Amino acid sequence: MDIKQLRYFTAIVQEGQITRAAKKLHMAQPPLSQQLKLMEQELGVPLIERKGKRLELTKPGKVLYDRTIPLLQSLEDVLTEVKETHDGLRGALTFGAVKSCFANLLEPIRLYKKQHPAVSFQIREGDSFLLGEYLKNREIEFAVIRLPIDMNHFSSIHLQSEPFVAVIPESWISNKLNKSSIPLNELQSMPLLLLHRLSGVGQFEMIVEEFKKQGVDPIIACECPDVNILLSLASIGIGAAIVPQSTLRSLKISNVKMMEITDFHVKAESAVIWLKDRYLSRSAEEMIKQIKSSAGVI
């Protein structure tokens, strides 16, 4: 049994059909079926059984598949490392970013591209939970996310914290509100637009808990994982958004006024995370160093 056969086997499992797997591998169906039979003969056990139109793993087949996936991933890491040692920084760097964190990446990306013009970027957007799933599936190398997040699978570098701010529709601004800050209790009567990730505990729970600690019962008009949507809603007078301060640096929204929230004790925390025990390409390592430097993290 060799690496090529293991690649054939994983393709069959992932596609669920010999025909689709053969198409994915750019080969004919009969040779692929023959390779599967040879593997089963060598091991002396059936690896896959047919259930209707689909193929399903047997128990021995599941053991082989579960062991093969990390083996092939480790091989890819080794090949990438060897190639980079010879070629230097080039190719595509794939990473993720939460929209409300993206302002922290603007200067690092500008400096990085100036130093390494041969590297292109593939950027995936999502909330912290979704980007964590992308990392686990090895679809991206690292991500800049908002904390908190379950860190069991990840290594991380914490970036600087920043305050939350209220983004008020300009149509609401009166003499009373025509100032640079607003007390927390004045937000009590306003419909609020809050970030809420797809799964897990995040900024939404932190903000609501802070309101409750101060005896304020917030009126929540909208929950959404996309900060751009919340700010757009604020711009048409639907509600007041509460977002990390740096968000307004990368997202230009008209018809709103940013105000500091006094007596608000929680901070927005961000971090760079990547999968534990995964080899990071030199391109990824250099970008993470640039992010740390721009954020003033030692």
From TrEMBL:
For this protein, the record's PROSITE patterns field holds: HTH_LYSR
Q: Does the keyword DNA-binding apply?
A: yes
For the keyword Transcription regulation, the answer is: yes
For this UniProt entry, which residues form the secretion signal?
none
Please list the residue ranges annotated as the HTH lysR-type domain.
1-58
Its domain of life reads Bacteria
Q: Which UniProt keywords apply?
A: DNA-binding, Transcription, Transcription regulation
Q: Per the similarity annotation, which family is this?
A: Belongs to the LysR transcriptional regulatory family.
Q: Which PANTHER family match?
A: HTH-TYPE TRANSCRIPTIONAL REGULATOR CYNR (PTHR30346:SF28), TRANSCRIPTIONAL DUAL REGULATOR HCAR-RELATED (PTHR30346)
Which protein are we looking at?
A: LysR family transcriptional regulator
Q: Which organism is it from?
A: Heyndrickxia acidicola
